[in-house]
Amino acid sequence: MSKKSLRIGWIGAGRMGYEMALRLAKSGCDLTVYNRTRAKAEPLAKYGAKIAGKVSELAGCDVVFCMVATYADVKEVVAGKGGLLSQAKDAAKTRPADSAKTRPADSVNTRPAAKGKPRVPRILVECSSISLEGSAELREILAAHGTQLLAAPVSGNAKVIKAGKLSFVCSGPKAVFDEVSPLLKLIAPAASYVGEGELARIVKICHNVFLGVVIQSLCEITILAHKAGVPRHAFLEFINQSVMGSVFSRYKTPALVNLDFKVTFTPYLLRKDIDLGLDAGRKFEVPLPLASVTRDLIQSMMGSGLTEQDFATLILQQARASGIELEPENVAVGDGLA
User: Fold this and answer.
1) Considering the entire predicted model, what is its pTM?
2) How high is the pLDDT of residue 87?
3) What mean pLDDT value characterizes the chain?
4) Of 30, 132, 135, 326, whose CB neighbour count within 10 A is largest?
5) If we measure between CA atoms, which residue out of 61, 104, 68 comes closest to residue 84?
6) Nearest-5° angle of CA 14, CA 18, CA 24?
7) In the chain, where does DSSP find H-type helix?
8) Which domains are delineated in the chain?
9) Alpha-carbon 281 to chain mean position
């Protein structure tokens, strides 16, 4: 199918979800967007997206993307009262028990003949950061109604999406990945398929544990250089041009130099993902000492009231622990994303 013939649904128009959906809308997709706070989704209408008042309105879509904060949110919008599967669940309750046993396996994917539309999406592309166990439960819930799941968490933030540098990691049926790949490429240039089941979830968990450990380490060495007399912008310029520089160190440089902590990822969400990593470490008997210490430092920062800004506020905690208070350097530095 072409992108224009596919009916695409989108759940979640927060910082990430909005920018991802925007790329589909601008590409001319037949897109319907639902967000719990409708006003956050409404600006997408000027790019051709339709705005749904209820998540159940997306049940007739071929493919639905989901990008929300936690597994509790995912489960609510998919399987909760009035959720994505609610029409199919209601139909199952009213259908005679014997007819449910004799219907063809794919018949749950068909609306009543009068309308000729699917009761549930054929595919759910779930992009949130959730646990392996939650993802497996979600796959089971969806399979019971004839919907296939592609686990597709992402690496990046809203600025990365705007710069066209987001990346997906995906797992689930290979045929489903192949089918939705053209849509993924409209959102991000890179989509890695890592296998069946929930493997993408552990990759994303490992990614975000690494994210936490790296930002803490970057804050530590930046404060060490700063206290020794090196301007932060000069130190980070060197790091970014060295073999240790990365996309991440570059796009965090404005925050560490000028203390611009506009949210890309909150401490709460980072703590959640490191907790998922520590849980996975226990499950697979892998020690994660750096992750454990970093989790405690994030918790300490949150306990001191640094909860609403970007997680790069870890540099403020590191500075205070080093006996200094930071001031913005007010130096023009790039984030490497332009």
Assistant:
1) 0.88
2) 83
3) 91
4) 135
5) 61
6) 155
7) 15-26, 38-41, 71-79, 86-94, 97-102, 132-143, 158-162, 174-187, 199-227, 232-241, 247-258, 267-284, 289-303, 314-321
8) 7-197 (3.40.50.720), 203-321 (1.10.1040.10)
9) 21
